[in-house]
Amino acid sequence: MPGFSKKLNTELRRLGVDSGEPLVAAVSGGADSCALLAALADLRNRGKIDNRIIAAHFEHGIRGAESVADEKFTLQLAERLGTDYRSGAGDPDDGRGNLEQWARRARYRFLENVAVSEGSSLILTGHTLNDQAETFLMNVIRGSGHDGLSAVHVKRSVAESSKVWIVRPLVTWANRSDTEEYCRERGIEYRNDDMNDDLKFKRIRIRKELIPLLEEYNPKIIEALVRNAETALETRNAIAWLTSHSEDFSSVVESECLPVMDLVALPSELHRMAAREWLKRRIGNLKRISTAHIASVVSLATTRKSGKLVELPGGIAIVKESGSLKLRNNRFEKTGSGDYN
Description:
single chain; alpha/beta; Rossmann fold; Uridine Diphospho-n-acetylenolpyruvylglucosamine Reductase, domain 3; 4-stranded antiparallel sheet; 13 helices; 10 strands
């Protein structure tokens, strides 16, 4: 058995992917997803798994004739490998805001619909270590904390209320060169998306310019970045545990108004963690909140004078009053001293 297929089989077992349930494999036509589909078919043909495999391709309608060619290629690949095939299409004119975000949402809606209609709870994607490293660097540049820097989940639900899971069985062990090599071994001439060379996208600039530069300092930079992402995920999980098991920590993060004395009473190493978690619970997400913002909130908590504030993105202000930090809309009148009433 090829090493790539063997490693995939080991990971599927580790993730608890049971035999018998249909597996929906997201296939774009690129090396990563083609390698995933080919290895799944190989495992099935060898009797290592007995799942029905469904190749699912979504045409975003962004690349014109190239998108149509991608759809034709993935259909032919599914036929060659003996898997079922489902396809869908989207209209980019229906998108709102960021085109990449629209494409991602539309693709996952399609994949979830395929899974439900086929009686499956599992969507498999071809994300690799490279995707993990690129995401980590994007969030470092953005100034994210441990939430944003955390490793991509190997398994997560498509949505909070959904019973369908996204499973990424390559993301912990395979890199892009592994998938490309496996495709060559199987004689699969995978598709190359021209958008993957378009430097107007931040992720592509990171892939084409920043990572090669970093590799000059550390040839194993991909693995190093992934380890850092995994460490951030461990931190995130540790905070979740503290919230559930430590009364001192949970009383801070669950309070409507953050009690300054309770925060200061925690070990100093937990101050930023607690402030971050408190903010997350108050505003829903921390996508625009940087580590510098969190540091400012902690600093506000340790100052003696009430009436000071920290302004955050999205029209939010954190104000210190009567021994607590309170979250407010920042539409307040300023006093002459620059403090808010």
